[in-house]
Amino acid sequence: MVSRNEAAEFLRGADDILILCHQYPDGDTLGSATALCRGLQKLGKRAMIKCSDPIVPKYDYLFGGVEKQEFTPKAIVAVDIADTQLIGEPNQSLYGEKIDLCIDHHPSNMGYAKRSCVDPKAAATCEIIFDVLNLLNVEIDRQIADCLYTGITTDTGCFKYINVTPRTYRIAADLVEKGADGNRINREMFDTKSRARIGMERRVMETIRYYYDNRVAVIKITLEMIRSTGATEGDIEGLASIPRAIEGVLVGVSLREKPDGTCKVSLRARPPINASDICAAFGGGGHAGAAGCTFDTTMDQAEKQMLEEIRKHI
Amino acid sequence: MVSRNEAAEFLRGADDILILCHQYPDGDTLGSATALCRGLQKLGKRAMIKCSDPIVPKYDYLFGGVEKQEFTPKAIVAVDIADTQLIGEPNQSLYGEKIDLCIDHHPSNMGYAKRSCVDPKAAATCEIIFDVLNLLNVEIDRQIADCLYTGITTDTGCFKYINVTPRTYRIAADLVEKGADGNRINREMFDTKSRARIGMERRVMETIRYYYDNRVAVIKITLEMIRSTGATEGDIEGLASIPRAIEGVLVGVSLREKPDGTCKVSLRARPPINASDICAAFGGGGHAGAAGCTFDTTMDQAEKQMLEEIRKHI
Ligand SMILES: [Mn+2]
Ligand SMILES: [Mn+2]
Fold it and tell me: Domains in chain A, please, with CATH?
């Protein structure tokens, strides 16, 4: 484990830096990568970003301040990636074993990098990037502020999740002072829904089932729903938080059918239930409030196993 | 207009203080009143709160730190009240002309009090109360922190509205440090939906129709839906904003069937469309973003007339 100082020190000495995002990229991995990339470029270094998955258009603005540069990387940095598995192909095969520095906030971080700068107390990897950029004496300009604000607001559900700390608010204050347009970003991230998203919400709400005195709610996301609504990954993101939002529900389970025949489970829990503990029983992980795991079975079988495990915790 | 310092000075010299909230009380007026009341009681003063309307149970926790005291008031303070009209009866008649101090953040404040401490830059009246309590050297304890945090988060839509400033985040940081349970409060205020609400959302989303190149979306709320889900007025509140949240939609129309055979229309518009102008054609009104009108016809006939009027504006 390295400190923020050591991470900054490594970056200060590095050049031709490739920054990797995790698959199914979210606001935090993309905000971290774009803020860091622009910051390094401002220091006169060459830097670029790679992600194994396509990036949905709503995140386009993050790349506004990033210069497109092509080079053979001499240093590889992973941001917001807990495990090399999450790099996704082709980048996992290409770079998975060569990560020089990982900057992350997942408590489940596997320590796969040569240097791991991991702080589970940070609500978002963007909080750590904010510190590292300051240590590198990079001026936080409006573009960087927008990127970092995006990661913080998306990973905290607009300052709503349990991971928010006084520091989260103080960094947000600094970023807004540096020009981050929090209002526009939050509207874009949280208030605008595509037609496909509306269709998915409607279909998903039809599948809600309650268990254990209504303390557990389960939803299903099938391939057919995704096909018939034309939903993209961006449209599916966040559906998993629907069941936990229901009054009295302590554990929300989202089951998602995958094209390869597996079933991906996203768990959302309220204290005192720990979602990560439950998913750990199936080789998964995450945070206390949100965690995930994968089953090589049908959705119905995955649901049965999850419910049995949840029963022990509730 | 008096400064925060002068407001604190007045309160320091006062005793037997009655604090008034506005009618239809929200998190800011109640959070301001309860934080101020507890703060004054901690200084050894007698203080009590009055509101013309009943307070819904979800705000009960705000009163946990307030001692019930009865006395004939010698000083009257209004919090978050822009106009004496908004005090509501009976308190408006009893106290409307005797307000010694008003602490508020509405730009429209009418200056009805003997001393008006109004700061339209504050996102919530609770921001001003935070400063006044600090000036009075009241220690912000966990209960006061919860009250002030509640007003700030409810008046900013959980840090989402345009009124949020760096100072808003910094005060939130301080309050969380003093023990405010932001996560629980935000979940309670924003994230918790009743099963009836979930049922209504699902049913309403099934009714969405798009018109005029998907720039207009219409939803319907029928008596049957309300009956079959068991929805209360609280569960129906806010459904009207669903259609406008859809990507590309400029005008969202919500048609609601009423027991007396009329049809209530709620319109939500994005610039440059003015919802109030459209509703004015049918004797209704409101703001540019949100307006309403009523039809003495079936929902289908109301929809037809609305669409014809909207066509002229789009
Ligand atoms: Mn993250
Ligand atoms: Mn207010």
Answer: 4-190 (3.90.1640.10), 195-311 (3.10.310.30)
